[in-house]
Amino acid sequence: MxxxxxxxxxxxxxxxxxxxxxxxxxxxPSSLECRVLIAPSFPLLGSxxxxxxxxxxxxxxxxxxxxxxxxxxxxxxxxxxxxxxAKFTLIGHSERRQLFHETGSFIQKKIxxxxxxxxxxxxxxxxxxxxxxxGNMQKVLxxxxxxxxxxxxxxxxxxIILAYEPVWAIGTGKQATPETAEEAHxxxxxxxxxxxxxxxxxxxxxxxxxxxxxxxxxxxxxQKNIDGALVGGASLSPESFLSIIQYNY
Length: 249
Ligand code: PGA
Description:
Elements lengths: L1 E6 L6 H11 L9 E6 L5 H8 L4 E3 L18 H7 L3 E4 L2 H6 L4 H14 L2 E6 L3 H5 L3 H13 L4 H4 L3 E4 L13 H19 L1 H6 L2 E4 L7 H5 L6 E4 L6 H8 L4
Parallel strand pairs: 1-2, 1-8, 2-3, 4-5, 5-6, 6-7, 7-8
The structure holds 2-phosphoglycolic acid.
């Protein structure tokens, strides 16, 4: 089953989230061909979880801290959000890596924390334009993958979702072509196979992210190794997110 995840980033007030759900929920089709996930800002989590109860959508978060609790002013623990009912967490989004200087080893600890807490990690990886143009795409993807997943068992890999998000395509309107994305996905899958075996790599969901919208999602989803999408800007409007999750109709 494909997975379509909305990443709201630092968007939406309480009233705007309510307005979104007022349109989104009544228009959700009764049967969906994909898992639908939304990651709102932390303060919206409680009300989003209440609204999503008994509906075919899963609510999660955009980040967690690697420690269980402690003196980390301004941070939020995995056990807090898990206890509230969050199902998943993004980890290592390129905005966290670039703007908040998250390192590979920090990301690795967060993956461990998420797994330990029972939150499904969505590990985000992706190269910058400069890295792609200098021929270093594969090297970068491999490094980000292995840094983040080092020490994971096959069982742990089986619980993870991977998101390939080329940094040059995020929020720029420049989406990777389905073929370009497919090539990167295939590369990531083959690296997982080398380290953790065919069985786990063939079932690992790999989402594509970067300027996905209602017009380009279908062609992306038709690629063999693209198992879903991580959607930023186009997940903010209920109409656009509804068309994305029904890309097949
Ligand atoms: P975008 O963001 O869809 O707005 O490009 C994707 C993401 O950052 O996850």
